[in-house]
Write the structure tokens for this entry.
Amino acid sequence: MANPIAIVLAAGKSKRMRSETPKVLHRVAGQPMICHVLDAVRDLSPERIILIVGDQAQPIRELLGESLVYVRQEQPLGTGHAVAQVKPGDLAGGSGEVLVVYGDVPTVTSKSLQDLLAAHRRDRAAATVLTAQVPDPTGLGRILRSPSGEFVRIIEEADASSAERTISEVNSGLYCFQADHLLARVGELTRENAQGEYYLTDVMAILRGRGERVSLCRIDDPSVVRSINDRRELAEAEQILRRRILAHLMDQGVTIVDPASTFVDHGVQVGEDTILHPFTLLEGATRVGRACGIGPGAHLIDTSVGHRSIIRHSVVEGTKLGDEVKVGPYAHLRPGSDLSAGVRVGNFAEIKNSTIGERSRVSHHCYVGDATIGPDVNVGAGAVVVNYDGRQKHRTQIGSGAFVGCNANLVAPVDVAAGSYVGAGSTITRDVPAGALGVARARQVNIEGWATRGKLGKSAGQQGPDAP
Ligand code: UD1
Ligand code: MG
């Protein structure tokens, strides 16, 4: 069977959001709300997707690209007016069915759209409305049914009597229409209602008045229809989506010690037997392999982690980690870093745009920037790669098996060759050849008896102003 055409509405103002940003671009669970909606719609392989956009079209088009058909609604005069902007030609082809989806319902699932389409086909309806029974229907359109349960009309809250407001079955903003019925009736809408808008919901009443069949498809899970009109609802949708993501990961074999303090973005992948400890955030294009321990307190952004790695109390951005890498506590790995298998990066270490070879250690209080470090290197406590001369960044190479002593400064560009040593406290400005010891620090002088000399008439151990 041919597939339906989808119309997604995204031209409304963000009035209740109180925002400069178009409502559908507000982020929920790691991506703009419209992307969640389009993901669900795309799962039904629609013939085409028509997106209704308003005067804030530019950022929406930039985000979504040209794979959609954009239709402009010059003024946001209501959901019915939005759909009326679609030209009959845009609805030609496909199965003759049109799914209409409001862009502010990011919790919509492809399953709910499939159920809607199936109910519409089963009932051979002119239009079908997806509905749900919700605990708090405030702000939503209520479903009026006849005593026998048939559809009568949808009434918006602003137009509803106090008796009608007690109805808890609401309009989800997800519909399926026969294209010819939709095209024939959408032009008949008027603005004679409390909000002075063209309501798409009135098309259903018009169809019913003409004796056409309008079906209702009620779903059991009200979270599917959590539309977002203000920031409170944004937070509620965020919770619903995050709970779904975590439930999916747990079904895939991931242990989540405390779901309430674990935040995983849409699209993040986590392998089997990995444990996510409390206060962990996995964001963007992050992928974590199998049997890792992530957290407590790990914040990963656009990062890929191999298998059996451990990251505790650290921030890791734009980094690639191999297998059995240990990071933290309290490390900061910045974009462009690549840590091979078995690397350890420890307490208060910062790594930026650097490659670190297998089994190398950068364990304590270090800064490594713009460096290429070979395998089996030890970077001692407090060592710093001095990558910036005030104007430009330069690179440093540290060959395999090299040993950089504590508190050394490696002033880039510099090459510490394989198997060489850098003495603790050295400021290295010239290359250290393979196998050599590079030392660059003042020799120690011990002044015998200085402390007990009593030169300044002070007791032993107190330093005077001419102390060396
Ligand atoms: C709408 C429904 C209501 C339903 C609720 C579900 C109508 C009249 N009411 O109310 O019955 O319970 O959704 O979420 O349809 N839009 C445009 N152009 C416009 C107006 C809106 O594109 O001129 C878009 C918005 O960007 C939004 C969607 O349509 O994505 C819904 O509009 P919104 O103003 O949020 O409608 P609700 O008041 O929530
Ligand atoms: Mg809405």
Q: What stands out?
A: Residues 324 and 398 are 22 Å apart (CA to CA). The mean pLDDT is 95.
